[in-house]
Amino acid sequence: MLEISIFSILAIFMLGGSFAMISNKQTVFSAFGFLVTMIGMAGIFAMLNNQFLAMAQIMVSVGAVVVLSMLTILTVNAKEENLPKEPHKYKWIIFSTIAVAPFTVLLYKTLTTMDRHFSEMATIDSKVLGSVLFSKWVLPFEILSILLLAAMLGAIVIARKKS
Amino acid sequence: MTPNIFYLLASILFSIGLVGLVSRKNLFVLYMSIELMLSSISLVLATLSKVLAQADGSVMALLMIGVIAAEAAVFLAMIINLYRSHRTLNADSFNKLREGVYND
């Protein structure tokens, strides 16, 4: 019962945050909705007995990605006339929701064809995660490190002023 | 607690990201919608990791967080570059590569 209530609170926060993200005109408020969603996601990871993933989510997604995007939004500091004019925004949102809803049902039904029960297991702590990460998944890990390096260089090159 | 509600939450979040992606024009909102879709997939992976009692799903979700970070860096740099050249955040105004003549 307690688990269900915690899950419901987190889910309401996440859904409200994501709806605020896609419906706000001001970009900073969208970023705040995104922040709420990411924190709720970390809580959901913690509910799945996955402490390390929850901490990584807090540190990377909340601490780095959201803060970086907020910094970018405040640096760009777009004036009202530079924002896109979207007079039919809610109409678009409603009709695309109708269009996407069958896909949501399809996704949910596809996912629920897998096992219906949580298996009894100890929590996935950093020891278990690290031993799997550095034995079975070491090649994807290295590829990801190269991807991060390439992304860093690419970001520097793209955002540089043309002289 | 069954995994079904986690799957339901992940599919709803994915769909909200998709709705934001098709219905908005603001570049930052598009970027955050893509991030939301990626995060919902990592939620599915973490749930599967608990269902199957293996840590592989969690490792995949962890790697996905890294991919999200890389994508954030490149996308934000791109937004800065586009804003500097066009002075707008409207995704419809970046149509240099579009075929045909449109004047909207």
Outline the structure in words.
The complex is a heterodimer of chains A (163) and B (104). Chain A is mostly helical. Helices cover 75% and strands 0% of the residues of chain A. Chain A contains six helices and no strands. Chain A starts with a helix and ends with a helix. The model of chain A has no long low-confidence stretch (mean pLDDT 90). In chain B, helix 1 packs antiparallel against helix 2 and helix 2 (27-51) runs antiparallel to helix 3. Classes of the chains: A mainly alpha (163), B mainly alpha (104). Chains A and B meet through helix 1, helix 2, helix 3, helix 4 and helix 5 of A and helix 1, helix 2 and helix 3 of B.
Question: What would a concise description of this structure say?
Answer:
The complex is a heterodimer of chains A (163) and B (104). Chain A has helices at 2-23, 27-47, 51-76, 89-112, 126-133, 138-159.
Order of helices and strands of chain A: HHHHHH
Q: What is the ordering of alpha helices and beta strands of chain B?
A: HHH
Q: How much helix is in the residues of chain B?
A: over 70%
The rounded Rg of chain B comes to 17 Å
**C-alpha-based Rg of chain A, rounded:** 20 Å
Secondary structure: number of strands of chain A:
0
The backbone outline of chain A, from C-alpha atoms, is: globular
Which short descriptors sum up this protein?
heterodimer, A: 163 residues, mainly alpha, Four Helix Bundle (Hemerythrin (Met), subunit A), 6 helices, B: 104 residues, Helix Hairpins, 3 helices
Topology readout:
The complex is a heterodimer of chains A (163) and B (104).
Chain A: H1 2-23, H2 27-47, H3 51-76, H4 89-112, H5 126-133, H6 138-159
Helix pairs in contact in A: 1-2, 2-3
Chain B: H1 3-23, H2 27-51, H3 56-86
